[in-house]
Amino acid sequence: MRCSVCGAPAQVEVRRRNQAFCPEHYRAWFVNEVRRNLKRHQMIRKGDRVLVAVSGGKDSLVLWDTLTGLGYRTTGFHIQLGIGDYSKRALAATRAFAEERGLELLVVDVRESFGLTIPQLAQSTGRAACSGCGLSKRYLMNRVAADEGYGVVATGHNLDDEAATLMGNVSRWQTDALVRQGPLLEEREGLARRIKPLYTLTEREVAAYAFLAGIEYQHEECPHAEGAKSLLYKDILNRLETRMPGTKQAFLVQYLKKVQPVLKEGLAGGDVELRRCERCGQVTTGSVCAHCKLWDRAYARAKKRRLLLESRGFDPRPKVDRLKPASEA
Ligand code: Q46
Ligand code: ZN
Ligand code: ZN
Q1: Using a 6 Å cutoff on CB, does residue 133 contact ligand 1?
Q2: pLDDT value, residue 189
Q3: Using CA atoms, how far apart are residues 19 and 12, in angstroms rounded to an integer?
Q4: Ligand 1 atom 7 nearest Cα
Q5: 129 lines ligand 1 (CB under 6 A)
Q6: Which of 32, 68, 237, 286 is the most buried (most CB within 10 A)?
Q7: Domain limits of the chain?
Q8: Residues of the chain whose pLDDT is less than 50?
Q9: CA Rg, the chain, in Å?
Q10: What is the pLDDT of residue 268?
């Protein structure tokens, strides 16, 4: 196999595009895909400061690497979930990446801020870890972006993630989620714009970039991911992809292009009114947001189990640790 650009021996094959690349041209191809996605949806606009959500895994670190490489002003944002050694290693990988490149990193530790780790939150509410975790991550991303003055939050969702989410939403016809899904969620009052610049690149392609760019990331999966439905959908999509290269991209991109606009129009008028949560001030549809409700419930149970002092009330303000690059410290 030869590189489609220079004819040198190829190291990465992109079957769905019928192309193969040498290391140098693969990286150039990858960055160009990201650049095209950013441009196509005008994801980052003049003067924007970008908060990049970084877990320490390959997707988010590759995203941070490509965005800084393209010259955007970025700050990393890492959430310590308190999931044992997995979380500690995630922070170590994230910090090492930031320090090596002299990038600013914000860290919020869920337990330091709110008193319970994500596993303790799950125990105290009786809900699966991922549901409270997802809710807390969304809350913190919005909250920290607003408090710290970032207009854009970028996440490392790749094509596999997005196609799996679409399959999950379609299998139950979750129309609310279907109209919201996409690489760009425009800012709304109090909520930063949310972007997914890697949405057309597969997990395998992201991993190949990480390897060739020498990015050291956390390889292990969160222990709670095991058995997640998204993994089943990814497996099904991978089997289709092997037989029919390009299926994943067609499934997602054609949905966004052809079906979502029709769906949005059909559901127009069904927009719910947004208001401010009485507890935390974030945008919500009810009087108290889902995040505050969840943590209030967790507090009641955690106090009974003596995980928290009786006198402690839930305070929705996160404590942000700022790790400045060495040059500015
Ligand atoms: S970190 Fe959190 Fe994921 Fe772990 S607990 Fe579930 S949602 S699986 S991306
Ligand atoms: Zn080449
Ligand atoms: Zn709230």
Answers
A1: yes
A2: 80
A3: 9
A4: 130
A5: yes
A6: 237
A7: 35-270
A8: none
A9: 21
A10: 72
